[in-house]
Amino acid sequence: MWSAKVFTLYPEFFPGLLDLGIYKRARTKKIWNLEVVNIRNFAIDKHGSVDDKPFGGGKGMLMRADVVNNCLAENKNNNSTVYLSPKGKQLTQEMVKNFSEANGLNILCGHFEGIDQRVIDANKIEEISIGDYILSGGEPAAVVLLDSILRLLPGVLGDEGSLEEESFNNNLLEYPQYTQPREWEGKKVPDVLLSGNHAEIKRWRLEQSRGITQRQRPDMWQKYNKNKN
Ligand code: SAH
How far is the CA of 132 from the centre of ligand 1 (A)? Predict the structure, then answer.
């Protein structure tokens, strides 16, 4: 069973979206489990404070090193821990795949202006960003991260073959797809897809993937061409 452990000031966020559909079913089938730890329970002073003003000045509050560290120390296991942070390494499908192949992951969610850097460094926690924008907390990012990992766990999706031809595998974006009706508001499905000629379909799809990647993602297109040679 793949184990997720989430450290958060807002446990109410969980399981949230992950308690629906395939994720709920997979949790019932014990493909994965979720433990949510409230960082606030590890506060030290009698007021239960978890944050304070940043040294050196600046806006907002930071989560305290001692409180977060207490929380991590009392919840240690054999899985690695990541901190969701806009200054982390940007999440890729390759990283997602690696996480899905481990036994689980501990996920630390920040709030306010973030977390005292000492606790991140002292615990050698990898920082991961889900993109170049700022959220108000790590919780939605944790849901994104978990969603991306969970769908790769064996038995979660109905058809595992569908994982093989997705965007980002082989540095190509997915080709366009079509379903019923064959003609919709005067627009037909490309003939080749109705031809039954699998080699032709494969060739057409690759051509489409290459075109889309070249147009939308010059960075990926460059990687694709480099890996091919
Ligand atoms: N002051 C920080 C932003 C703090 S945002 C900075 O400028 O870098 C508050 C919390 O939201 C962070 O601690 C982090 O856990 C989460 N967060 C915000 N944006 C995120 C992103 N793009 N990816 C992952 N986590 C993010």
Answer: 10
Q: Distance, CA 120 to ligand 1 centroid (Å)?
A: 14
- pLDDT of 229: 66
How many of the other CB atoms lie within 10 Å of CB of 18?
A: 22
For the stretch 109-162, pLDDT in tens is 999 999 999 999 999 999 999 999 999 999 999 999 999 999 999 999 977 667
104 lines ligand 1 (CB under 6 A): no
Give the pLDDT confidence of 15-70 residue by residue, as tens digits. 999 999 999 999 999 999 999 999 999 999 889 999 999 999 999 999 999 999 99
Q: Is the CB of 52 under 6 A from ligand 1?
A: no
CATH of the domain at 182: 1.10.1270.20
Which ligand 1 atom minimizes the distance to the CA of 133? 22
Q: In a mutational test of the pocket of ligand 1, which residue from 84, 92, 95 has the highest number of ligand atoms less than 8 Å from its CB?
A: 84
Measured from the CA of 108, which atom of ligand 1 is nearest? 15
Contacts with 154 (C-beta within 8 Å, 6 or more apart), sequence order? 31, 160
Instruction: Note whether 63 and 39 are within 8 A (CB).
Output: yes
Hey, which residues does 6 pair with through a beta bridge? 36, 107
Say whether both 9 and 98 belong to one domain. yes
The verdict on 112 and 185 lying in the same domain is no
Cβ 84 vs Cβ 110: under 8 Å: yes
